[in-house]
Amino acid sequence: MRSPGSTPISSLPISTRTRGIFEHPALRVAALSLPLLVLAACGKQGGANAAPGGMPPPEVSVVTVQSRDLPIDFEYVGQTAGSRETEVRARISGILENRLYEEGSRVKAGAVLFQIDPGTYQTQLASAEAAAGVSEAKLNQAKREYARLQPLAAEKAISQKEFDDAKSNLETAEASLKQVRAQVNEAKLNLGYTRVIAPIAGVTGVASKSNGSLVTPTDSLLTTIVQTDPVYVNFSIPEADFLKVSREVGNGKVALPGKRTNNGSLAFDVQVKLADGSVFPTSGKMNFVSEKINPATGGFDARAQIPNPDGTLRPGQFVRAMLKGATRTASLAVPQRAVIDGPMGKMVFTVSPDNKLVPKPVELDGWSHGEWIVTKGLQSGDRVLVDGFIKAHDPGMTVTPVPLAANAAASGKPAGAAPAAAK
After folding, report:
1. Are 106 and 212 within one domain?
2. Neighbouring residues of 278: CB distance < 8 A, sequence distance ≥ 6
3. Helix, strand, or coil (residue 149)
4. CATH code of the domain in which 102 resides
5. Closest CA to 51 of 419, 399, 422, 408
6. Are 398 and 60 in contact (CB under 8 A)?
7. Is the domain of 163 the same as that of 205?
8. What's the CA gap between 357 and 395, in Å, rounded?
9. Does residue 339 share a domain with residue 250?
10. Are residues 129 and 110 located together in one domain of the fold?
11. What's the pLDDT tens digit per position in 194-247?
């Protein structure tokens, strides 16, 4: 029933009719509630694990930590040195006639490096040999005299004194000949010393004397030779590191690649990193650790021996000595990007059996080939979140865990590569 003079609703335009309907309070509330009821129905159809807004739980990459032996490395600043460094000196006085080697070249042991004027020493040798000839002639005469008088003395045909004098002359002649022969040997040595030879094989240094210089035993340094195959790498191990490794080796937490050396040093394999960041292709062994702390460095002096057949490493180079081969037994480790800084220190997110994120504080002890070694906070079998922190970072949030290897294969990345979003 309508009032007199009013226009029928059916005769009004559609827009006018619609506006009039939604001006009614009850109808306006029903219209606003309809979308919410639709969303609620969709939420019920999505299941209990649906994320806010009806989205499914986000996928995250996880690793399942397992107890295993982990390689551990140590790295220290070192300096190379020749395994043998020798000063080449003149043993006699004389004029330096000639230098017979090229400075900086590699020489063999016994190679002639310098020639000192041999004239004086040739004369001395000739004189000594002549004196030896005279002494030998006197000895022969004394022998003949003694042989002639010996039967006469037996028959008492000569006095005892005459026979004793002949015997004494023989003994004196023998001693004199020995003395002169020693002088001949000395003269030969001095003549041989005019040829200065390399005592070891190695690389020669700069000649400190030029041709024509006078050399004497008191001022006799001619050059140096450094043996560079093998080469030594000298470095210092901090006291804390040395004590920690020694203690963990003793209690079985750390295993070394070999037994301790005779002097008790740790038998590490050693690689050398050069100044340009490249790694020297040949590795060696640590062969010495000092028994006392060096007060200048506060650590134990140590040394490694590295084969250097091509002479690539030169004495005096600053390098980094990388001690390898040790393993930490039955340990847990997680990728580097799985560890984050939380309010209470380092922490990781684990995924519970019902796929909920659970934050766990962890304690770390060193680095092992791109992974943190975890000493406290995790157990073998825990699933740890590695990639996906942007999508999932709230404790208690439901996620869809995907093993890291499978996720990396699906994305075409290696298992150790971190996605751009997680960096």
Report:
1. yes
2. none
3. helix
4. 2.40.50.100
5. 399
6. no
7. no
8. 5
9. no
10. no
11. 999 999 999 999 999 999 999 998 888 999 999 999 999 999 999 998 888 888
Burial zone of 196 (CB within 10 Å; 0-12 exposed, 13-18 middle, 19+ buried) = buried
pTM of the model: 0.65
CATH code, domain carrying 398? 2.40.420.20
Q: What is the pLDDT of residues 23-42, one digit of tens each?
A: 444 334 333 333 333 333 34
Statement to judge: residues 254 and 299 lie in one domain: yes
Range of the domain at 249: 73-83+227-325
Q: How far apart are the C-alpha atoms of 117 and 367, rounded to whole Å? A: 64
Q: Which residue has the tokens 């075409």?
A: 412
Q: 413 and 339, same structural domain?
A: yes
Contact, 308 vs 228, CB < 8 A?
yes
Is the residue at 347 inside a domain? yes
Q: Which helix (H) or strand (E) holds 350?
A: strand 345-351
Identify the pLDDT of residue 82: 93
In a domain, 41, yes or no: no
Rounded Cα distance between 304 and 230, Å, is: 10
Cα dihedral 340, 342, 346, 349 sign: negative
> In terms of Cα–Cα distance, which of 287, 307, 253, 310 is closest to 67?
253
Lowest-pLDDT range, 43-52, 261-270, 321-330?
43-52
How many domains are contained in the chain? 4
Tens digits of per-residue pLDDT, 97-153?
Answer: 999 999 999 999 999 999 999 999 999 999 999 999 999 999 999 999 999 999 998
- Which amino acid would we find at residue 353? P
Pairing of strands 284-294, 357-361: unpaired
Q: Which residues pair with 347 in a beta bridge?
A: 340, 361
Confidence of residue 268 (pLDDT cuts 50, 70, 90): confident
* DSSP element (H, E) containing 100: none
* Residues 98 and 168 placed together within one structural domain of the fold: no
% of residues, the chain, pLDDT over 70: 81
Cα dihedral 42, 45, 51, 57, rounded to 10, equals -140
Task: With respect to residue 21, please indicate whether it lies within any of the assigned structural domains.
Answer: no
Q: What is the mean pLDDT of the chain?
A: 82
CATH of the domain at 267: 2.40.30.170
Collapse the DSSP code of 339 into the 3-class scheme (helix H, G, I; strand E, B; otherwise coil) and give the result. Answer: coil
Task: Tell me the two tokens of residue 47.
Answer: 């299941």
Cβ 65 vs Cβ 380: under 8 Å: yes
CATH code assigned at 171: 1.10.287.470
**Residue 142 falls within a domain, yes or no?**
yes
